[in-house]
Amino acid sequence: MKMNKSSILSYLSSVIILAGFSCVEKPASSEKQADNFSISKKNKPKEDAPKDMVWIPGGEFIMGTDEENAYAAERPAVNLKVDGFWMDVHEVTNREFAEFVEATGYVTVAERKPEWEELKKQLPPGTPKPDDSVLVPGSMVFSPPPYAVPLQDISLWWKWVDGASWKHPEGPESNLEGRENHPVVHIAFEDAEAYAKWAGKRLPTEIEWEFAARGGMNGKRFAWGDELTPNGQFLANTFQGVFPHDNTGNDGFVGTSPVKTFAPNSFGLYDMIGNVWELTSDWYDALKYARIAGQAPKLDAGMNPCYNPDNPYAMERVIKGGSFLCAENYCVNYRPSARQGHAYDSGTSNVGFRLVKDAKDQNISMK
Ligand SMILES: [Ca+2]
Ligand SMILES: [Ca+2]
Predict the structure, then answer these.
(1) pTM of the full predicted structure?
(2) Ligand of minimum distance to the alpha carbon of 91
(3) Is pLDDT of 13 > 70?
């Protein structure tokens, strides 16, 4: 098969990058129980809080969910313990990422020419090499059609855009003017790791992230309770209307929003739900909770840590929290237990990150 630009983009978008966005339509609802975390009062460190970070106390909580009204990879609910840690109160912003680039000269993955030898590792065996001319820097941009489309074909709203990057979120003609305080996007895992190293922090594990997002409440569907919009109040930047073509922006935003626009959760964290998905340090394993619960075989040391039956060739990291593109009729992922795999070597226009930091006193532990 001869590879032209449209066909390589089909491969790169549909097979590698977008498989992580292979949401199913709205699941059915069910009952669940409520409870509070078991949090130690003794484990607050004496050190001053790092700038724009808050102490997440650690403790015992229920991760995942038993709701039928959730995707299979979120089940079953499991009891877990986590140590305390500092966490950024907001997603890393364009301004902060620009400071990092200014200080280090770092060039993100989206700004580099794709390497075929790397790309083919995540493609079905025998995929032909595309013409070199189509392997140009760029990234995936949400580009909705002006009319309703079948929800099975994600290439109808995700487009590869040459020249799209964190500095040019919609392509070369776009810029960050007026968006300095919005979360940075088009960030691949290694970009986030490089930023973390510079900042003296690290990406959260999935367990840490979900503990933090739940804000001390077990068994709640959302980070703030069981209603998406209590008393009609929007508590996160998600998608209102009919995905993907009719984004009403009733919450005030059709794209990203400035960080800290919506109310924080009980731990003082903003935008854990919505705005942009957030990278974690975990490889994506669709059976993770089932393995913890003893309902699926454990992974041996020599096995691939990444398991996604919908995307068997890709190596994916877990992303959490959903984004401004999560809608009631598609990708109902604006919930703490929601999780998706995201290609480790790619960014998109709705994925960013925030960081955590360990206490200097390593004796603070719940384990
Ligand atoms: Ca919105
Ligand atoms: Ca978020």
Answers:
(1) 0.90
(2) 2
(3) no
